[in-house]
Amino acid sequence: MRMTLLRKCLSIFLSGIFILTGVAPARGSEFLPAAGQMVHFSGAFTAPELVGVRVYSDQPFRFDFILDKGDTPDDGHDWQDESQRLIKYFLASLTIPEKDLWVNLSPSEPDRIVNSALGATTAGRDMLVEDYLLKQVAASMTHPDREPGKTFWEHIHKKIREQYGDVDYPMDTFRKVWVVPESSV
Q1: Which of 35, 167, 17, 155 is nearest to 92 (CA)?
Q2: Angle CA 146–150–153, to nearest 5
Q3: Which of 58, 124, 167, 185 suits a disulfide with 118, CB 3.0-4.6 Å?
Q4: Which of 6, 19, 10, 38 shows the shortest CA–CA distance to 142?
Q5: pTM for the full model?
């Protein structure tokens, strides 16, 4: 009974923190490329990440978050803001049901973009930014007038002819790109 009450209190506390700190402009949204603009890969970069959480059994509302700075520059970068953003992501993932942790910028599903609870958070808005960038990069990489897109589409058309012969098929059949999550340990 006492453990159940403790868990409920912890859930309410985390939800309160999440609601109070989860609203902020999407990171990087002011730098998004225009729709249809070709984009290219940036150089290699290791992003900062939350690598652990220490929970104190004698103080259930005390946490220590363990963060890795990755390739974040030390000069002029506000590490405090970056770490707060990562902690908000973590809290969002704890308080929003797993089935609602998705975004979808598919033009064929305009009524299914983001769950309203996730969309009200920094994590949700940043996920939308990343999905937009993913689709921009994928479209740039598979554009049929440029390499490697030309090679990609030649390969796709060859495989279709081998399996089905000369058939007419809608081009948007092959253009859906998404990220599939893995489990965290």
Answers
A1: 17
A2: 140
A3: 124
A4: 38
A5: 0.71
> Alpha-carbon distance 132 to 27, whole Å?
13
Cα separations (Å) of 70 from 44, 48, 62, 128?
11, 5, 25, 23
In sequence order, the 6+-apart residues with CB closer than 8 A to the CB of 136 are 33, 35, 37, 39
φ, ψ (nearest 5 deg) of residue 115: -60, 140
Distances (CA, A) of 37 to 91, 137, 162: 34, 10, 33
User: Tell me, what DSSP letter sits at residue 114?
Assistant: B
149-168: pLDDT as tens digits: 899 889 988 988 898 888 87
What are the start-end ranges of the E strands in 7-58?
Answer: 49-56
- Six token digits for residue 78: 């506000």
